[in-house]
Design brief:
The protein is of the alpha/beta class and 410 residues long. Helices cover 34% and strands 24% of the residues. It is built from ten helices and 21 strands. The strands form four sheets. Strands 4, 6, 7, 8, 15, 16, 17, 18 and 19 form a nine-stranded mixed sheet that branches. It has a six-stranded mixed sheet with strand order 10-2-1-14-21-20, covered by helices on one side. The chain has a three-stranded antiparallel sheet with strand order 3-9-5. The longest helix is centred in the first third of the chain and has 28 residues.
Length: 410
């Protein structure tokens, strides 16, 4: 079959490889080119250990405190609030205990498959050198939060995720650059991070082309309801295929709506600063719990990023938020390069209220599969998502219950 993938981010590229594995003819379509969205600027974790949805009773209680700080971990641009309100209502509903538990089961099942899927993809494309398996740390400066992490570790163990709780002395042995402010850390020995998000995404894209995939630069604005869907662009552009996959990240909503799925997709604007050439300060990715940022030792240099801002796709970046992230890091880590030497970035995470992506057939045309909305876990879940999309198109049973990710769940 000839299958078109709308979106050349990491999810679309990984899906291309899964479909090539099944012998399909693959056409990748993107209005910009490969890895123009968050695939080029994310933190670079394969964060398969994260099983807790963002919409939780605990996080809901913290929202007023977060919003009181315009440069804190969560911000909403006032002019955007009216548009965001329906999404916020769904977010609140997703934090109810029963809904929260359902989201854990769906997220945990997906995360359980994420790392094996990535290792397989890297091996088959001869790109394993891009995957670093040094483990990952979540470091704590608050005793109560560290105690809570022990309870979370029990939930992670239910999904086969290994975690070791370590004290401050061991933490300093792991990462000497950390200042003497930490009470302990959760160490995940199996966590992996990648060489560089852009470098790996482009390498996977080139590998797909080498395997026979084609690429076309075009903006798809609609799809037909025919069994062989027509992808429709501007100025008469059109391509007819046997199947189509919508994997356009934060830009997927209008196409999904045209296919009968009013998915509550929002844009979490994430910020980071990278220091090219600054390597060796830390040896593994570190999440700074309660401080709203992470740090990753990419091959290309140190990256500090995080925070969530709701402001849509059109507002300009507010890099005062990036500076705030850096200042927090400087209070916790010795030896950081000067902020002015860094490269600033802001990207659009495609976010759904329950922290679960959409993976399933479109309501009005089962010849089209939707695969977007991965939020903070696009890099992590891309390889496993590609395999699930291939299963759907082939009519094979999936190892994961796809009901968790149904486009119709809203």
């Amino acid at each position: 079959m000839k299958i078109a993938i709308v979106g050349a981010g990491i999810v679309g590229i990984a899906t291309a490889h899964a479909l090539l594995d099944d012998g399909h003819e693959v056409l990748i379509i993107d209005k910009e080119g490969p890895a123009f969205g968050p695939s080029r600027g994310n933190a670079g974790w394969i964060a398969h250990t994260d099983i807790l949805p963002i919409a939780s009773p605990k996080n809901l209680r913290q929202v007023p405190r977060f919003l009181a700080d315009p440069l804190g971990p969560l911000a909403i641009r006032p002019v955007y609030l009216p548009k965001l309100l329906p999404w916020l209502v769904r977010f609140i509903l997703a934090a109810r205990p029963a809904a929260y538990e359902r989201s854990i089961q769906g997220l945990g099942a997906l995360q359980q498959q994420a790392l094996p899927a990535w290792l397989k993809l890297a091996q088959t494309t001869h790109l394993s050198r891009h995957i670093h398996r040094n483990g990952g740390l979540y470091a704590f400066t608050d005793n109560a939060a560290f105690a809570e992490a022990r309870r979370i570790a029990q939930r992670q163990a239910e999904f086969g995720i290994k975690v070791e709780m370590i004290g401050p002395d061991v933490l300093r042995q792991f990462e000497p650059a950390l200042k003497d402010r930490f009470v302990g850390a959760a160490f995940h020995p199996e966590t992996a991070h990648i060489s560089d998000p852009l470098e790996l995404s482009l390498a996977l894209f080139e590998a797909a082309l080498a395997r026979g995939a084609q690429f076309e630069k075009a903006e798809v604005i609609n799809l037909s309801m025919a069994a062989r869907p027509a992808l429709i662009g501007r100025d008469g552009w059109q391509r007819v295929v046997d199947r189509a996959v919508i994997a356009a990240g934060a830009w997927s909503g209008p196409l999904a709506a045209a296919l009968g799925n009013a998915v509550p997709l929002e844009t979490e604007r994430g910020y980071n600063v990278s220091f090219p050439g600054s390597t060796g300060l830390t040896s593994r990715p570190i999440g700074f719990e309660g401080h709203g940022f992470v740090m990753t030792p990419l091959d290309s240099g140190l990256r500090i990023g995080g925070a969530v801002e709701f402001g849509g796709l059109d507002a300009p970046p507010n890099h005062a938020r990036t500076r705030a992230l850096y200042d927090k890091a400087a209070n916790l880590v010795d030896g950081l390069p000067a902020f002015g030497s860094g490269r600033l970035w802001m990207g659009f995470r495609p976010s759904l209220p329950d922290s679960l992506p959409v993976i399933g057939k479109a309501a009005r045309n089962p010849s089209v599969v939707l695969a977007f909305g991965h939020g903070h876990y696009g890099m992590t879940q891309s390889a496993v998502t590609g395999g699930l999309v291939a299963d759907l198109i082939a009519g094979r049973p999936s190892a994961i219950d796809l009901g968790h990710f149904s486009p119709n769940r809203f």
